[in-house]
Amino acid sequence: MLAAPDLSSIRLDVPLPTMHRVKQRFDAPVVADVEGETRAQVRRFASTIKPGARIAITAGSRGIANIARIIKAVGDEVRALGGEPFVMPAMGSHGKATAEGQVEMLGELGVTEPSTGMRIVSSMEVREVARIPEIDMPCYVSVTALDADGVILVNRVKPHTDFNGPIESGLSKICTIGLGKQLGAQTIHSYGVPGLKTWMPRVAQMNVEKANVLFGVAIVENAYDQTAIVEALPPSGIAGDDERRLLRTAYGMMASLPFDELDVLVIDEMGKQISGTGMDTNVIGRMLVRGSEEFARPNIMSLAILDLTDGSHGNAAGLGVADFTTQRLLDKVDFAAYYINCITSGIGGLQRGQVPMVMLTDRDAVMASIRSCGEPRADKVGVMHIRNTLQIGEIEISASLLGQARALPHLDVDPEGHPFEFDRDGRVRDVWGALANAGH
Questions:
Q1: Apex CA 275: angle with CA 273 and CA 280, to 5°?
Q2: What span, in angstroms and rounded, lies between the C-alpha atoms of 89 and 121?
């Protein structure tokens, strides 16, 4: 644990802008019957479920909409087809790289034995099943998966936070970094960006065969993080054309911040349930991975992150993409969990594993960001405030951005401004309930 720095001598007197509440409207298809659609998709591969077969169903560490319901529906249909399903954590080094920690992390996501109606079988033991001949890379698979009669992969297909490519985050990732546990994740990440972009799909194809993957259940979410697509893919579609197609669809549905240029972005919270990097790099426009190109937009001059979700269990991976943070966030960091994740991520964790400048309070962090952003005129500085990078349908913007906002047809702007709100201790006020109910 780091000793708390003495920050009491830092005195910032920076004018705070008037803020306006804004709602973003996105085209957003939704699956009306999540359970029914999931079971229908599993039935497409009914012939792969043999009576009495022990079937492992993967569960990752991300906050996916309806994930417990989807996993339960997969298990219910497997059971209806005569199989004996169970849930298996598949999340690389998360949960402090322990079997117990990974079960605990699933519980934070609502994936429990009561919620899914299945046993959770957790182990970090892996076995080498193959090698990628070009670079002699070993492929690792969970012994729990290998001991099962078949594996069903369940994961969300979405843009990755470390690189861009035809296969990013989805069934390939959970088949390699997930099923590979810490050793598999560390092996792939140790090759840097090529490990993820080039070799992860190759390892996925090897693991699909060696682990007897029956099929995958891919989830795509809309811009409001609602379930938009549930689709079962054959083994050949994993790291193949089907997964590439769904990734393109996910890119088309992805929410984004409305402006290309921003002086200051204030984010209330980061966390592992929100993104693998705590804050989705696709949203904030900061990759910070050596060997990966930076995003074209948005260009944010200064970024303040104020808090860490309790469900992160102290893992602040991705904190280094911010410029300022708070003492209350730092007090929550479990540096063992944080650094295990960063080191396992290889070059993806180097810059992101650093600690930004720490301010005593939320108000201080916001003021420091404004002071440092390169726009000294209080009436001109462009400030945006969001809850987290997963929930950006509702945002706040400074008055200086109103002209740009009103020119965008998908934004509904509240004309009534209000102060940037903090309590007497300098902690940002939770304005999001009021924004959701504003009805503007």
A1: 150
A2: 7
Same domain assignment for residues 193 and 278: no
Q: Do 262 and 361 belong to one domain?
A: yes
> What is the C-alpha separation between 58 and 152, in angstroms, rounded?
7
Contacts of residue 121, defined as CB under 8 A and 6 or more positions apart, other chains included, come to: 56, 86, 87, 88, 144
Q: Is residue 12 part of a domain?
A: no
Nearest to 431 by CA among 395, 381, 401: 395
How many CA atoms lie within 13 Å of 365's alpha carbon, on the beta-carbon side?
Answer: 30
d(CA 34, CA 29): 13
Residue 24 pairs in a beta bridge with 411
Last residue of a domain, one of 224, 253, 282: 253
Mean pLDDT per 10-residue section of the chain, whose length is 440 residues? 70 91 94 98 98 97 92 98 97 85 92 97 96 94 97 94 83 94 90 84 94 97 94 97 96 93 97 87 88 86 96 91 96 91 81 93 96 92 96 95 96 95 94 57
Examine residue 319 and state whether it is found in any structural domain, yes or no.
Answer: yes
Given a contact cutoff of 8 angstroms between Cβ atoms, the answer to whether 45 and 234 are in contact is yes
> Do the beta carbons of residue 268 and residue 262 sit within 8 Å?
no
At which residue do the structure tokens 């200086």 appear? Answer: 400
Which amino acid, 60? G
Q: Which residues pair with 267 in a beta bridge?
A: 305, 386
For helices 335-344 and 181-189, the axis angle rounded to 10 degrees is 50
pLDDT of residue 439: 39
| Rounded CA separation 375/89 (Å) | 47
**C-beta neighbour count of 47 within 10 angstroms:** 9
Residue range(s) defining the domain that contains residue 270: 18-26+256-436
Complete DSSP assignment for 54-97: EEEEEE-SS--TTHHHHHHHHHHHHHHTT-EEEEEE--TTTGGG
Please indicate, yes or no, if residue 10 is contained in any of the structural domains: no
Decide if 123 contacts 187 (C-beta within 8 A).
no
| Burial tier of 416 (Cβ tally within 10 Å: 0-12, 13-18, 19+) | exposed
Q: Are residues 316 and 196 in the same domain?
A: no
- Give the contacts of 295 (CB within 8 A, at least 6 positions apart): 281, 282, 285, 286, 287
Choosing from 201, 227, 253, the residue where a domain stops is 253
